[in-house]
Structures are given as structure tokens and as C-alpha cells.
Hints:
It is a single chain. The protein is an alpha/beta fold. It has 2 domains: 245 residues, Peroxisomal Thiolase, Chain A, domain 1; 145 residues, Thiolase/Chalcone synthase (Peroxisomal Thiolase, Chain A, domain 1), CATH 3.40.47. It contains 13 helices and 15 strands. The strands form 3 sheets. An 11-stranded mixed sheet has the order 5-4-6-7-1-8-15-14-9-10-12, with helices on both faces. A two-stranded antiparallel sheet has the order 2-3. It has a two-stranded antiparallel sheet with strand order 11-13. It is globular and about 60 Å long.
Amino acid sequence: MKRVAITGLGVITPLGNSVEAFIAGLQRKENATVYIPEWEKYKGLRCLVGAPARLENELLIPRQNRRSMGRLSIFAVQAAQQALKDANIPKDALFNNRLGCVIGSTMGSAESIAEAFETILPDNDLSKLTSTKFFQCVSHTAALNVGQFLGITGTVMATNAACASALQAIGAGYEQIRLGQQDIMLCGGAEGLHPTVVGSFDVLFAASVNFNQTPKETPRPFDAQRDGLVCGEGAGIVVLEDYDLAKKRKAKIYAEIIGYNSFANGSHVSESNREAITSCINETLKRAKVTPGDIDYINAHATATIQGDKEEASAIRGIFGSTVPVSSLKGNIGHTLGASGAIELIASLIMMEKGLIYPTLNLKTPDKDCQGINHVMQPLAKKINILLKNCFAFGGINASLVCKKPA
């Protein structure tokens, strides 16, 4: 099996549209949650806060390409461009069948899907739809639009597993390179913020509803006063590369992926399960050939839901005890859903590079069900050689990834 390096990073986030801007926001302990008054018109929607990203410079994408892109696809294309530039991938590599992409999302563009139904339903007239609206709505819209915009002729795939989408995409790309099927992969996820998505969490009592008037106080991962997640949006893309080829061309290597796994719990469609999370993490560590004591930092999924945080904390406590530092970035950027695994992994790689762990924002008093693990509540200077990233999704889908700092 080939080794796999991460050589390029690109993000669009609620804290800024570059890796530098994103990290600067984390360093300033910024919270991107805002009250969104336009959502007041939706009957039954109790959560009126979100973490929006800024749509910028979309006109730089030629109209011919842009017509098939919803908001999340534009984010994905822009993040992919950043990642390719960061990795210094030569343009001719895009067209030789050895470069591919795997990009996931929760669904197609929610905004475009809503627009499509709003156009059709008043008169039941399908002829009012544009010919390109379909390509904004399909579940693999981010992957297909990145592939088409860049002219990729290698593998193009989409992972659509809600909040685990981006980490599964990175795992799929990792496996493509390990098996020698591809040399370079653009991997990650994208998401657009829309009230229909927020509403799906709201009806499950999983969205934050108590802080509409004080949005900077939510979400609150692991905290005793947490009351649910805040939906965000954006995109995160990483360049994965055959490790030996990356070394040969003297590319900057942020980390080597040494272990990945995705297991399901098979028992509940919407509630996390500590036994399944434990099984997923343990198998990931086994595949990475490391022990719990080798892990220097855990970037938790921790969305600030009552059940999810409790179950993840329990699994971490059972495997790692109270020694390994743990933090979540949801307090800064909300839950970017299908993009979260990649965006948060990118931040974790920068933490590894800097030797500095960013804390869990809005974590004031760890809930009794979330105690017994090493919560990072203030910036922590620490050398990180090996890190673990977790993502968990509806359908009982769990995914974990282990990365090692290059020697």
C-alpha cells in the first residue's frame, strides 16, 4: 500500500474565505453565529440563528460553469482552487487521469432545491425551470462542478453522508491513492446554509433555540447549558498525494494520513451511540498502528447536541481517559455539516504545524455527562505529532481519521 500525504489546503468558512482568515478568526476567539431575521417568516422554525459564510468573487467563475453551480458548489470550487495553489499542483496534472476528486455534501444545494419547488408548484409548471437548475440540485453537485470546472479526467465521486460526508470523502481519496488507483485527489465537502436544513434539526429538537437574542453564546459544545447545534456553511478541500511523489517534487507536506475508518451503529437513525463510536475509533487506531497513548490531540465532532456530545465524551473517556487534549471548533463556526470534517481537519493541521491547540469556544462549565476528558478551554501550547479527527452523522454513521506530522 502506498503512503498518503496532505499537501494542499483550501477553505471557505463563516470566519473567512481563506485558510489565513479562518485561522486568524480562531486565534481571536471569534464566534460567527448571527441572528437571521429573514427566517422569522417560516412558521414552526424556532432556531433563528446560523453561521453564514460570505459569497465572494463568484463572478470570477465563467458564467458557462457558474450556471450549474448553487451556493455550495461555488464554495467548493473556490476552496479547491486554493488547495491546488497551496499544493503547487502543475496544471497538466489535472488532465492525465491520475488526478481525481471526492467531494461530499449533505444534499444538493438546499437553496437551489427550494427555488426549484417554489418555481414549479404555484402553477405546476416544469417549463419554468432553467436547464441547469437540475445540476445545482443533484446530490453530487459539488463533485461534478469541481470536476467540470477544473477539467478533471480522473476519478470523480461524491460522499453524501450528512455530517460525515467530508471525512468520508477524505477517507475515500486516501484509499484510492493507497491502492495506486490515483496519484492526487482533491477531497473534502461543501455545504450551503438554508432554513430548510436548519428546520430538519429543529424538528428533531437538535437545533439551538434558547440563544436567538444572544447568538454569540451559542453553540456550546460539551457545556452544561448547550441546547443544540447551529448550522453553518462553507467548504473545505485538501489535496491528497502519493507520499513518495510529493517528496520527489519537494512539496510541502502538512501531514501523512496513517489511519481511517467508518463504521455504522445499525441501531438508531438520529441518536449517536457510544459503543459504535468507541468501535470506530479503536479500529481507526488499529489501522493506524498506534495506541491511545500515541494521540496528542483529538478534534471532536461535538456539535453541542445533548445526546451527541454525551456519547462522544463517553467514548473518548473510555478510550483515552483524561489525558489527551480535546476541543471542538463548532463554537466558532457552527456546524458546517457536510463540510465540517474537512474544514475542522484543516484547522487541526494548522494547530499541528503551530504547536497550538485552539479551545472549545463557549465551553464554560462542562456538563456532568461530558466530564472526565481533557477539555481545552484556553489556547494550549502543545507539540502535536499525531492527531485524531472524529465525525458522526445521522444514520448512525461514524468516521475517524488519524494524521501524523511529517518527520
